Structures are given as C-alpha cells and as structure tokens.
Amino acid sequence: MDLSIIILNYKTREITLDCLKSIFASDLGNYQIEVILVDNASLDGSVETFAKIKIPKNISFEIIENQKNLGFAGGNNVGLKKARGAYLLLLNSDVLLQKETLKKQLEFMQNYVQYHASTCKLLLKNGKIDPACHRGFPTPWNSFAYFSRLEKIFPDNKFFGGYHQGFRNLKEIHTVDAISGAFFMIKKEALDKLGFLDEAFFMYGEDLDWCLRLKNLGLKIGFYPQNQALHLKGFSGREKQDKKIKQKSDLYFWQAMKIFYQKHYEKQYSSFLNFLIYQILNYKIKQFS
Fold first, then answer.
1. How far is Cα 285 from Cα 289, in angstroms, rounded to an integer?
2. Torsion of the alpha carbons at 134, 140, 146 and 148, rounded to the nearest 10
3. What whole-number distance in Å separates Cα of residue 129 and Cα of residue 121?
4. Which residue among 115, 213, 227, 246 is the one 20 to 30 A from 90 at the CA level?
5. Taking every pair of C-alpha atoms in the chain, what is the biggest distance, in angstroms?
6. Quick check: 213 and 262 in contact, CB under 8 A?
7. Per residue in 115-163, pLDDT tens?
8. Alpha-carbon gap, residue 91 to 35, rounded angstroms
9. Could you tell me the pTM of the whole model?
10. Average predicted confidence (pLDDT) for the chain
11. DSSP letters along 107-124, please?
C-alpha cells in the first residue's frame, strides 16, 4: 500500500462527501491507496451516507465509528493506527483535491528524500495561500510579532515574520518549520520514530506539536508549492459563523496554546516571562470559557 489517507468527520457530512469525491476522481497513476474515514460520533446519519458511496476499484475504503468525540488528535490517531501505507496523509474534510494532487505529492516525497513530511500549497476560496500551511513555531517573540500585527506591517521581514515565514519564496520548494494538519503527508517510518498525535490537544496545536517533535528528531518538512489543493475552511472551528461553536473553538485554541507552551517552551524562558505569558493565556481561556 503506497498511501493511507485519514479523514476525520464530525458533523460535516456534505463537505466530507465533496472531499471524498475529489479523492475518488484523482489520477493516481500506479499508486495504491486506502482511505480511512473516522467518524467522531457525529450521530447525524453521516456514517450511513458514507457507506453508500460508490468506491473506485483501485481504492480501499474503510469507515471507523468512534463511540464518542475524541477530538482531532484522538480521532486521527484511530485512523493512523489502522493505516498500512508507506506514506500517510492527514486530510481535513474541508479540503478539495485537484486531479493530480495526491500523485504529485507522493512523487515529491519519493524524489525529495530529505523530507520526512510535507504539504502542498493550500489555497483559500479567495485564491490566497492558507497561512496555516506555511508557518514558524509560536515562540514568545513570533507570537508577539503576530498578535501585535508587526508581522502584517513587515510581512517580508525575517525578524518580524517568523510566525508565518512570509520572508521565504513561496514559489520555490523549501524546508518549513510547521504545516497544517489539513494536509499533512508523512512517511510511515517517520511516524514510527515520532509517535502519534498528542491527545492532550483536543483541537488545535497537535499539528504544531507534531512538527516541532519532527524537528527535534532532525527530520525535515517540505513545502511543495507547485502542487495545490483548496481549503474551504469555515465549516468548523474558529471560522464558523455559529457563535457558540466559534466560542468553543476559540477556547480549544487558547487551551492548546497553553499546553504547547508548557510542553515546549516553559523550561526555556525565565520565570518572569512565563508569568506574563500564562497571565495572557489564562485570561484568553477565561474569556472564552
């Protein structure tokens, strides 16, 4: 098996169907793939709908029903543990692939062997790049430059632009610190060294955590801009228009940022800076609780 695609569904039946259709319409060449769709206890008829889909002969398709919502990390880990491919792809249900997206990304991974994980260029509906697919790590300075909007004022400046690394040439293949879990391809051998997603992160942060753990192992992540997919966004999470869902998603985001800081940065910085950062994080968590 060349590629295992893991898709997590939670009450996004229609857009997940569109995602699946884009996979099934793909030109795969001679690659063998499997699609593992994990339903996070949607309880809205999603599973019954997915079970009726017509599957191409060259694609293996499996549906896994979780008995409760395990979050992004927990739900995807269920699929990762079942995966048989030499390469694994975390794919958001709101990503639509072009006809050759999968084939091109697999060829990229096979030709650029220095990379153990990679992403294509994710585009938003407005045609602009999804900034989450090309990121630095949220160090205290990078975060300050981003939230103070200094990055926006000086987007091409390396000193201020570390959060999204806009100083890099987005038209060329290069190494990037962090990519999005919306389209995250990784070698199985890298996963064996890395381990699964950290389930302390319920929603948000788990992809950043994975990327930093890869970097700590000396494994590189590649950005391949000549290959593209459409990231619709807005169907779940912080872009959702429903105020209750958005508030809960914002809560998960700030909780994730606190977990990430505790795990990776707390020991690197002074007690005074830690105090200031935890004051901000706790304030944001309380704001959305």
1. 6
2. 180
3. 7
4. 246
5. 60
6. no
7. 999 999 999 999 999 999 999 999 999 999 999 999 999 989 999 999 9
8. 10
9. 0.94
10. 95
11. HHHHH-TTEEEEEEEEE-
Strand stretches in the chain, DSSP E: 3-9, 33-39, 59-65, 87-91, 95-97, 115-123, 174-175, 183-187, 220-231
The domain limits of the chain are: 236-289
- Tokens representing residue 64 in the block: 């896994």
The residue written with tokens 């294509």 in the block is 120
Q: Is 189 helix (H, G, I), strand (E, B) or coil?
A: helix
Model confidence over 233-260: pLDDT tens digits?
866 555 555 788 889 899 999 999 999 9
Residues of the chain where predicted confidence (pLDDT) is lower than 50: none
Q: How far lies 186's CA from each of 60, 106, 140, 179, 278, in Å?
A: 19, 10, 28, 11, 33
What tokens were used for 75? 């739900």
**In which residue are the tokens 């259709």 written?**
21
Token digits for 272? 């005074």
